[in-house]
Design brief:
This protein is of the alpha/beta class. The chain contains nine helices and 13 strands. Bound molecules: nicotinamide-adenine-dinucleotide and uridine-5'-diphosphate (2 copies).
Length: 313
């Protein structure tokens, strides 16, 4: 009983999750349509006989036989999910329906990669799972936020209606090697700009905050969550509660990269959340999970990754 499906498995988080599952001697089926994920993210696994890669779009039905499902398929960066917003909602909603239908037929446990974006521009701080959020339903971020909220609704309805074993995690900003260099997320943008000696693009006044979790910590949380006691559905926040302003992040990256890049200030995108920080007491209590990697250590590894990636260009 160790066949595991990872949708979005060729993406940033998905590829690290596939690595971890292979290390744990699981039989891994990685499904991806390569919208933002790439084959190089998983090419080192291709020779492993426990690893299979399938090009498939989760908005279409999928008939395979597995025991556990991690549903990660969905572009995660604002630049990519706003590129084709209708497809983003379809991926979240139709993708969830198909993967839930698959889990129902197989009686498989299924984990949904939800997001801190379900809290929108939050009015309480830090965010706790019982908070319902403050989300604009018709803005440029809505395709992602509302798509993910509807996916959570579907997960809980399949749980109540069909007694499906579901696990919902709300992931807060996560960073590390294999982030897409052009996906517009703040950590990858600042590092690429610092390494290339280009201007660092601060949106707004840089006083907005985020809390950044290193990828290895996050993957440990996903593994613990799918193994959690039967009946524990979440939603559970996974993220690092250390909170920084974007100005602090920029300064830290400049220092660690030894870069002389200048800071420039650009307009703040619409509906950009002002602050974000997870309350992780539920994860700590239920799955004994807390992150271990601090921002400086995680950034050092990530900067090295981008340095070698950019040197190879
Ligand atoms: P990513 O863009 O690197 O990975 C998403 C993967 O899904 C890509 O490989 C992409 O090709 C694939 N995909 C997209 N649409 C698909 C479709 N219709 N069918 C099949 N595959 C499809 O992003 P990521 O950071 O690895 O995020 C993975 C998951 O975690 C996403 O669901 C995202 O919403 C969630 N999440 C990530 C973060 C973060 O900070 N990285 C934060 C919150 C939530
Ligand atoms: N589905 C799938 N693989 C399966 C079983 C179902 O992709 O192994 C899809 C199928 O497209 C279906 C959806 O999941 O429409 C929801 O399945 P469910 O059984 O909940 O509903 P129904 O089949 O009645 O629409
Ligand atoms: N941001 C920035 N400069 C950039 C990219 C992003 O100042 O080059 C800001 C962005 O406006 C937001 C924060 O950094 O306030 C985090 O952005 P990201 O897209 O990484 O994630 P999200 O907004 O989804 O948390």
């Amino acid at each position: 009983m160790n066949r595991v499906l990872v949708t979005g498995g060729a993406g940033f988080l998905g590829s690290h999750l596939c690595d971890r599952l292979i290390e744990d001697r699981m039989d891994v089926l990685c499904v991806d349509n390569f919208f933002t994920g790439t084959k190089p993210n998983v090419s080192h696994l291709m020779d492993n006989r426990n690893f299979e890669l399938l090009r498939h779009d989760v908005t279409f039905p999928l008939y395979v036989e597995v025991d556990k499902i991690f549903n990660l398929a969905c572009p995660a960066s604002p630049v990519h999910y706003q590129h084709d917003p209708v497809q983003t909602t379809k991926t979240s909603v139709h993708g969830a329906i198909n993967m839930l239908g698959l889990a129902k037929r197989l009686k498989a446990t299924i984990l949904q990669a939800s997001t801190s974006e379900v809290y929108g521009n939050p009015e309480i701080h830090p965010q706790i799972e019982s908070y319902w959020g403050h989300v604009n339903p018709i803005g440029p971020r809505s395709c992602y936020d509302e798509g993910k909220r509807c996916a959570e609704t579907l997960f809980f309805d399949y749980h109540r209606q069909h007694n499906l074993d579901i696990k919902v995690v709300r992931i807060f900003n996560t960073y590390g090697p294999r982030m897409h260099p052009n996906d517009g997320r703040v950590v990858s943008n600042f590092i690429v700009q610092a390494v290339r000696g280009e201007d660092i693009t601060i949106y707004g006044d840089g006083q907005q905050t985020r809390s950044f979790c290193y990828v290895d910590d996050l993957i440990e949380g996903l593994i613990r969550m799918i193994a959690s006691e039967s009946g524990f559905t979440g939603p559970v926040n996974l993220g690092n509660p250390d909170e920084f302003t974007m100005l602090e992040l920029a300064e830290q990256i400049l220092k660690l990269a030894g870069s002389k890049s200048k800071l420039i200030f650009l307009p703040l995108p619409a509906d950009d959340p002002k602050q974000r920080k997870p309350d992780i007491s539920l994860a700590s209590e239920k799955i004994d999970w807390t992150p271990n990697v601090n921002l400086e250590d995680g950034l050092k590894v990530t900067i090295e990754y981008f340095r070698s990636l950019l040197a190879a260009e």
